[in-house]
Write a sequence for this structure.
């Protein structure tokens, strides 16, 4: 299992050599807010909202003192905007009251903040502070179960199980690679099995079309040409 998982991770590294957080941000605070907004919302939509939001609210104090109605208007299109506004205002207040307005750089403090669970904390740790973390979102959980790295459904248990298979220094990169692969190739309903770079190691091969031409039409994203070339080798 460990050898197979690490081999798959290396292959994903070849498929996606330039992975990154697909939420736009320039500070830990911006990433924290963007990640809260990304719940039940696409990264593309969040990135459409955040430029104006970040221009209006630049510090934790700005969020702590935000007019709720105004903030809700900025984030309305991300869905669940009232709950998200509560979390963001609460985050600003907690940062001002307990952390001098700065986002902390450790798991224990992060998960104590409004709007934060382990998933959000790992996104911030891995991408804003370069602290390795496994981000178990919908794509990640779906794929690692499809690959039978684990049968766990609970995100915390998934995180721990996968963490035992892959070296800690690789955790953040692994998270991005798996999420990229889930969005571009290994779709929930019809994975592009016939052109998947993991086909030889995937126990679920055949869940989607195995004919290369049929599968190729399912691949999405800017890396499509590279992925199809790699699969053909």
């Amino acid at each position: 299992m460990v050898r197979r998982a690490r081999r798959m991770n290396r292959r994903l590294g070849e498929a996606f050599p330039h992975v990154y957080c697909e939420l736009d941000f320039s500070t830990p605070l911006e990433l924290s807010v963007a990640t809260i907004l990304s719940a039940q919302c696409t990264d593309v939509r969040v990135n459409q909202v955040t430029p104006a939001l970040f221009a209006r609210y630049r510090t934790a104090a700005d969020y702590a003192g935000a007019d709720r109605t105004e903030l809700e208007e900025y984030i309305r299109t991300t869905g669940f905007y009232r709950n998200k506004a509560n979390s963001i205002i609460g985050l600003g207040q907690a940062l001002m009251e307990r952390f001098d307005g700065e986002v902390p750089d450790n798991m224990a403090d992060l998960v104590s903040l409004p709007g934060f669970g382990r998933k959000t904390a790992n996104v911030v740790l891995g991408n804003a502070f370069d602290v390795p973390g496994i981000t178990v979102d919908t794509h990640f959980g779906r794929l690692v179960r499809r690959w039978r790295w684990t049968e766990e459904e609970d995100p915390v248990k998934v995180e721990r199980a996968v963490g035992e298979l892959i070296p800690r220094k690789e955790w953040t990169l692994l998270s991005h690679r798996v999420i990229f692969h889930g969005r571009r190739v290994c779709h929930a309903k019809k994975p592009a099995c016939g052109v998947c770079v993991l086909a030889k190691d995937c126990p679920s091969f055949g869940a989607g079309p195995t004919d290369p031409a049929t599968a190729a039409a399912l691949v999405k994203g800017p890396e499509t040409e590279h992925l199809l070339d790699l699969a053909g080798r």
